[in-house]
């Protein structure tokens, strides 16, 4: 559910009257809506699966009763989304939420400024998965946005220790921790001093 929402009474009817309908994936990211669906269906059909397609709230969705998720980010960082799931299932919600906040920056960067799924495709390319081009043709501005996004994504993935940092280094990002920001400023200053021949 995302582009064409289905109302809760219809979902309940599908779940209770049609045994071959075994679950639903909701990509809206709407926690309250997911709670309403779970409350409407699970008491009568406990084996009905509820999946989230909005990884920006994977752990909160697990907390309210979702069984898991299917996400575009899992094409890029499957080990991270799996780690979040495993941490939650093992009872370590606090650690799972720490990863949730970390993946949020990556998710937001992949979601814009390009049209979905181009940002996710660009990040997957950095991991070595070559899916080919999604849309043709792209304007000069779109190609520039893609190149800029690739650098940002490479920096975020490097924070996860999944790829190398770009040769030009990484700029300080708003979502970085204060320690990361200080570290990045030092790296940027050192690189500039080397360029100028001071070091």
Task: Please tag this protein with its features.
199 residues; mainly alpha; 3 domains; 3 strands
Tell me what the structure shows.
A three-stranded parallel sheet has the order 1-2-3. The mean pLDDT is 84. The chain has helices spanning 8-17, 31-41, 58-63, 78-89, 93-111, 118-126, 140-159, 178-195, and strands spanning 23-26, 49-52, 68-69. It folds into three domains: 1-71; 79-166, no CATH class; 172-199, no CATH class. By secondary structure, the protein is mainly alpha-helical. 25% of the residues are buried. The longest helix has 20 residues, at 140-159.
Quick rundown:
This protein is mainly α.
Poorly predicted runs are: none
Oligomeric status: single chain
Question: What about the largest sheet?
Answer: 3 strands, parallel
The number of strands is 3
What number of structural domains do the residues give?
A: 3
How would you write the strand order of the largest sheet?
1-2-3
Q: How much helix is in the residues?
A: 40-55%
Count of separate DSSP helical elements: 8
Shape: elongated
* Rg measurement, Å: 20 Å
Please write out the topology.
Elements: H1 8-17, E1 23-26, H2 31-41, E2 49-52, H3 58-63, E3 68-69, H4 78-89, H5 93-111, H6 118-126, H7 140-159, H8 178-195
Parallel strand pairs: 1-2, 2-3
Helix pairs in contact: 1-2, 4-5, 5-6, 5-7, 6-7
């Amino acid at each position: 559910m995302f582009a064409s929402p289905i109302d809760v009474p219809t979902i309940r009817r599908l779940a209770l009257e049609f045994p071959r309908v075994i679950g639903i994936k909701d990509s809206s990211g709407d926690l309250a809506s997911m709670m309403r669906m779970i409350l409407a269906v699970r008491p009568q059909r406990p084996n009905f699966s509820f999946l989230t397609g909005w990884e920006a709230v994977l752990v909160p969705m697990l907390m309210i009763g979702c069984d898991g998720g299917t996400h575009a980010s899992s094409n890029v960082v499957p080990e991270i989304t799996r780690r979040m799931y495993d941490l939650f299932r093992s009872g370590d919600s606090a650690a799972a939420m720490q990863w949730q906040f970390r993946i949020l920056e990556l998710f937001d960067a992949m979601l814009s400024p390009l049209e979905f799924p181009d940002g996710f495709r660009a990040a997957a390319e950095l991991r070595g998965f070559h899916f080919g081009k999604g849309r043709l043709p792209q304007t000069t501005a779109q190609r520039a946005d893609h190149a800029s996004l690739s650098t940002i994504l490479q920096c975020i993935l490097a924070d996860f220790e999944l790829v190398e940092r770009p040769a030009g280094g990484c700029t300080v990002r708003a979502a970085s921790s204060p320690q990361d920001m200080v570290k990045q400023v030092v790296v940027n200053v050192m690189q500039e001093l080397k360029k100028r021949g001071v070091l």
